[in-house]
Amino acid sequence: MSGKIAIGIDIGGTNIKAGAVNDKGEVVVRATLPTEAQRGGEALLARIVAISNELISSTEAKGFKCIGVGIGSAGQIDVKNGAVAGATSNLPGWAGIQVVSRLQEQINLPVVLDNDANALAYGEAWVGAGKGWRDFVCITLGTGIGGCFIHEGQPYHGHSGFAGEFGHHVIKYGGRSCNCGRSGCWEQYASVTALMKMVNEQAGDRLEEFPSAEVVFAKARNGDEFALRMVENYAEYIAAGLSNFIHIFNPNGIVIGGAVTAQGDFLFDRILHFVERSVMRVYNDEKNPIQILPALLGEDAGIVGSAAPLYSSVIR
Q: What angle do CA 179, 185, 189 make, to 5 degrees?
């Protein structure tokens, strides 16, 4: 084996997933370390250095030439200065770390840093569901909601680099309290956590029958009326946010990642139905129908997307 590779690193609250990515967007070597986030930001940086060196050494031994390291992290990322401006509670002590400059000192290679949702979107733009689209919205639905607008093939970062907090646009004024300090945020209605909150509030004496979102969807597929009503309500809440993005960005389409992609057409057809009902007709004509697609890269999305900017010509 030979050729160029870039290291992509996806930082999660539990594990650091990393891989060596070739210029076709394929992960040729993988590695995982526990994040051990409770040890703080400096310890986390040390683990990133360790996993970077491990992958650089193992791939160069196979004849590859490493061109740099890309990192995707939760939180608000100062892309211009390569630093973590704001971190989630899952990564204590991570805010304020000058990741790019300090990692470059350790490995003597180019380093890029971005928000994890932006990284996922970048990967989908390169070799995933958004390939060939110049402008699209990418959403991740999980415990919370992450998002990114790909504009002209690149993540849109905004003035300070913090664009894409789609989960915190309000869809219900005075609605459910959100951990961001506001109320009525889309995340409180369209995340997987929100689905289970809705089930818990309405299941009554059947609550024990619905221990997880997977069970809710499975029962809905089998015709359970309550589960089906929950899925229908959930799809409508997702569509409410997506319709806003369609009106604001007029994208080629929307890519949805996260655990819900496993539900396939059963969920996506319902989302599309509610979107088609709520957007203005000019945004969904016969020549340019709305497209809402599941993300394709799965567990590799963060790795591939983090490495993608190092192949600077692949999307531009």
A: 100
Distance CA 71, CA 9 (A): 5
Other C-beta atoms within 10 Å of 2: how many? 8
Percent of the chain with pLDDT over 70: 98
Q: How far apart are CA 44 and CA 83, in angstroms?
A: 14
| Element of type H or E holding 64 | strand 64-73
What local confidence, expressed as pLDDT, does residue 286 receive?
Answer: 83
pLDDT tens readout for residues 46-79: 999 999 999 999 999 999 999 999 999 988 999 9
CA distance 74 to 118: 10
**Half-sphere exposure of residue 136, counting CA atoms within 13 Å on the CB side?**
28
Q: Give this prediction's pTM.
A: 0.90
Cα dihedral sign, 228-213-139-121: negative
Query: With 90 as the cut, is the pLDDT of residue 250 above it?
Result: yes
Contact 151, 179 (CB under 8 A): no
